[in-house]
């Protein structure tokens, strides 16, 4: 059974990779570019690895035939928590793609795709009342809370998606928030007075920066109700040493556990702690020689293993819940990234909605 599923996933992955190549061939009517070949081999490789590490299951919704939903680990706390992570993508080219100049690379076709996601419309999902939070929903839910998001550029994109939801993407406040948030290598803070919410984004490209931040909360004896962390890409690029990454993650874990000793038990009053996982890296699309060299698939997997072995995540007995960016980016696919590393905001909107549902589900249990 498991073998059959794995085989199914491999075939599907190969078919998807072939479809990408065939589409691009159809467009050019000529031979494959180097990028497509790189993507092709990358896709098969990732497919194989994903099959080994994750348990694939197929969405029963015919609208989303192109996507595969994956869930890393079964969550024993509640069956609803498992469903929260299972979303499906529909990634479709828009009408103008026909005019796309195919001598350009995959990155430059990014703007021609529309990306939609949803939970499968099953009875179980309905029964668990899993839903997309609207602006008023989210405002009510986050009323009076202190949210801290700390990490690298992924954490910044996650912050952007939260601000989009709370302030509205077209609002004037959002324009100025966006400008301030994207100042290079800076922190950002905002108080949304009408809902008494305070949001801090802390630029923390290394895990060590996160450890210091947590130690700071401990000194000040005050900490946020919701905290989202994630760092690793800088370490991968500049230090490129997975065993060192594992050891800094262990230190972070120690620091989190000593600040929130109760948080391994879900209680309604305990803070909600999340980890933003690594995005899938598409080597052929990375925008510098150093990145393509250092951030290979093998290194990605070594870092992913380091994360499991550090036992930082709840699924390995640690204090943080994973926001499964690996599964989200994998399922959305190569047309969802413009540089093989940073993905469309839709990925982070989905991660945000998963987080909100996750918090509500874990509160309801008490
Ligand atoms: C496609 O793009 C290339 C390089 O950007 C350019 O030289 C070529 O003229 C373009 N072809 C068409 C049909 O626009
Ligand atoms: C498709 O995407 C391109 C690039 O962003 C955009 O210029 C064009 O207006 C879009 N076309 C449609 C029909 O949405
Ligand atoms: C937030 O909470 C305050 C006080 O509890 C309340 O007065 C206010 O109406 C709430 N705002 C929203 C948007 O729910
Ligand atoms: C951002 O905030 C952290 C934690 O408060 C602090 O350690 C760091 O120096 C700040 N960074 C900048 C660039 O101000
Ligand atoms: C993050 O940590 C690195 C390595 O320890 C350090 O060089 C850098 O100054 C720190 N950055 C911030 C913003 O704290
Ligand atoms: C990697 O990090 C470990 C632990 O910090 C260290 O012992 C080892 O020497 C490092 N390896 C390299 C090649 O730098
Ligand atoms: C793809 O094309 C864009 C501009 O069209 C360019 O900036 C980028 O470096 C190219 N990427 C690769 C991997 O060649």
UniProtKB/TrEMBL annotation:
Predominant subcellular localization, coarse grouping: membrane
Residues passing through the membrane, by range: 36-54
Protein location: Membrane
Leader sequence residues: 1-17
Keywords recorded for this protein, A-Z: Membrane, Signal, Transmembrane, Transmembrane helix
Name of protein: Pmr5/Cas1p GDSL/SGNH-like acyl-esterase family protein
